[in-house]
Structures are given as C-alpha cells and as structure tokens.
Write a structure and sequence with these properties.
Length: 126
C-alpha cells in the first residue's frame, strides 16, 4: 500500500532532519520564481507565524536565497516545526504552496522524540 500524502498540512509529511548549530535551506517547489523577479509575493511561515514576507520589511525574521528558499542559520531546537512557502503573483493570485516539516537533532545520540499537536517533532537531549 502506498502512503497518501496530503497536499498541504498533512501530518504524515516526512521530516527534513538537520543538526543544532548547522545552516539549513528550506526549499520551495516553484522553479520559475527567479524569472518572476520582484513581481511576485513570497511569504514564509513557521508554525503559521510569518517569518519572511518580501512585501513587508518588518516580517523578515530570516534571510532567503536568490530563488526565495528560506535560509536558517545556526539552527536551534525551536527552529523545528512546519514551514510553509506561499507564492502569489503580482495580482495577488495564489500560485503555489510548499510545506516542509523540519526536525532539529540535538548534539548527542541519545534523545527522545515527541510530537506536539502533530506539527512539530523536536529532538530532546537527555
């Protein structure tokens, strides 16, 4: 039996793993973004809180790469969770959403895994 994957926000999404202190790029699936240059609206959320919005300077908690992927530097355990990229065209029409679940691994090998409300999985150092 194949696993069914929901398009947005499914609890069965695979985790992307990264270690504490590392740099991680969260990709989006929209390959044509660079061609649109500034005529698009890109918003990134982390557990539904806006962490990057190219139309609002105040919302830029993180940097992005040239193609709009989210750049997370010096990862910490609280960076874990669900990241969503939403792309609109210059008229405000929704074009694409990409959801990525990030799990952050602690520095030690012994850790427990738990999920909070089905959206986060955080590695706890014990």
């Amino acid at each position: 039996g194949e696993k069914q994957r929901e398009e947005v926000g499914g609890a069965d999404e695979e985790c992307v793993y990264a270690a504490v202190g590392k740099t991680k790029v969260i990709e989006h699936d929209y390959s044509g973004l660079e061609l649109l240059e500034q005529s698009f609206h890109l918003r990134w959320t982390h557990d539904s809180k806006i962490v990057y919005d190219n139309k609002k300077d105040t919302a830029k908690k993180y940097q992005t790469t040239k193609n709009g992927s989210l750049l997370l530097e010096n990862l910490q355990l609280d960076n874990a969770g669900t990241y969503q990229a939403t792309i609109y065209d210059n008229l405000g029409n929704h074009m694409k959403s990409t959801v990525t679940r990030l799990c952050v691994l602690g520095k030690y090998r012994t850790h427990k895994q738990y999920r909070k409300q089905g959206t986060e999985c955080v590695q706890i150092i014990t």
